[in-house]
Amino acid sequence: MGYEYTPLTTIDGQTLLNTQLETPRFVVSSLIPMGLHILGGAPKAGKSWLMLWLCLCVSKGENLWNYQCRKGTALYLCLEDSYERIQSRLLDITEDAPDNLFFSIMACSLEDGLTEQIEYFLREHPDTNLIVIDTLQNIRGESNNSNPYDNDYRELTVLRDIAYKHKIAILCVHHLRKMKDVDPMNMLSGTTGLSGVVDTVFILDREQRTDSRATLFCTGRDIESQKLVLELDSATHIWKLVSDSAAEEVKLIDPVIQTVADFMLFSSVDFTGTATQLAEAIEKATGAVLYPAVLSKKLMKHHGQLSELGWRCSFKRSRNEKFIEITRVAVGKYGSGG
Questions:
Q1: Sign of the torsion formed by the C-alpha atoms of 317, 292, 303 and 335
Q2: Can you state the percent helix, strand and coil of the chain, rounding each to 5?
Q3: Which alpha helices (DSSP H) does the chain contain, by range?
Q4: What are the residues whose beta carbons fall under 8 Å from the beta carbon of 86, sequence distance 6 or more?
Q5: Is the CB of residue 230 less than 8 Å from the CB of residue 215?
Q6: Which pLDDT belongs to residue 142?
Q7: Helix (H, G, I), strand (E, B), or coil: what is residue 194?
Q8: Which Pfam family is one of this chain's hits (predicted)?
Q9: pLDDT for 96-114, tens place per residue?
Q10: 254-328: what CATH class?
Q11: For residues 203 and 217, is the Cβ–Cβ distance under 8 A?
Q12: pLDDT of residue 48
């Protein structure tokens, strides 16, 4: 009797490059994409203040420092706090909390119904963009697994699957080891299974607990690794950005995609042609200089962003040339100007 197996499902490189696949949606531009993320920090390092402000920014659609936020419902599971403390903190940072920002101080564990609770909330609030779980330890079940790595990976995979299914960001707050490390990413408490399963790791590191300044280390699958120097304002309790590689506002829509959308709006007709022809037409109409190769790659990679602005982009190949087709579909969510 022969061995039965399921053959590998493969795709060749040429087909892959020419197939329009869904790209990650960002809840906070260039910083927090949809998926599962973890923020590590020492106790009383200011993690909860940062998470509260993040939820407020997302729910109001306001910038987080230089980074544009996608407006939507935010759920903050503040499982180590009381409503009295949350109210006090909220009053410290704002006078206007929107009705699409929700809090809960109690939740089931992952093995006792948390996934069902989250699914129910998402059905009730389908515009949800962000869920913060503070802290991860409060939702973990009893570990009977002799392999800690496997246990860490298995538990967080459940949350990651929910984030992918609903195209939202779930951010878990976690503690750090007491021992310092040259690589801040190695300071997360637990095994490397935690950092292995999540899409992004953030580490909020203060040299001394009394320091007003901290460094936020950021690394992930869909973002560029960077570090942000922050300072906690003692009056407002908001983490202010001191230094960042991004001096200007980082928008949810790529600048090249925005330029294409502005050109299409200006021309008022659909476009069919090569990337070179599109680049020449854009330069003639707007003065913006775009390299055809960069333009083609950006359109392929970020066609979903162009769709949000009301334009459908597709690619067709004829002999040795690739043609771009851009057609109007609807009024986009962000409109002209991003």
A1: negative
A2: 35, 25, 40
A3: 13-17, 47-60, 83-93, 114-124, 148-166, 192-197, 255-267, 275-286, 292-301, 303-308
A4: 52, 76, 78, 103, 105
A5: yes
A6: 74
A7: helix
A8: AAA_25
A9: 999 999 999 999 999 999 9
A10: mainly alpha
A11: yes
A12: 95
DSSP SS3 for 271: strand
Residue keyed to tokens 């330029």: 259
Q: Where are the alpha helices (DSSP H) in 73-231?
A: 83-93, 114-124, 148-166, 192-197
Per-residue confidence (pLDDT) for residue 152, from 0 to 100: 85
pLDDT for 337 equals 42
- pTM for the predicted model, two decimal places: 0.88
What CA–CA distance (Å, rounded) separates 112 from 123? 19
Report pLDDT for 247: 57
- Which residues does the chain have with pLDDT short of 70? 1-2, 143-145, 181, 244-247, 330-338
Kindly report the backbone phi and psi dihedral angles of residue 45, in degrees, each rounded to the nearest multiple of 5, phi listed first: -85, -5
Distances (CA, A) of 318 to 61, 62, 303: 43, 45, 21
CB atoms within 10 A of CB 198: 25
Q: Per-residue b/e over 76-98, b at no fewer than 16 CB within 10 Å?
A: bbbbebeeeebeebbeeebeebe
| In the block, residue with structure tokens 């920002």 | 101
Q: What is the largest CA-CA distance in the chain?
A: 76
Residues 267 and 285: their CA atoms lie apart, in Å, by 8
For the chain, give every domain's residue range. Answer: 26-243, 254-328
Distance (Å, rounded) from C-alpha 209 to C-alpha 260? 48
Per CATH, the architecture of 26-243 is what?
3-Layer(aba) Sandwich (3.40)
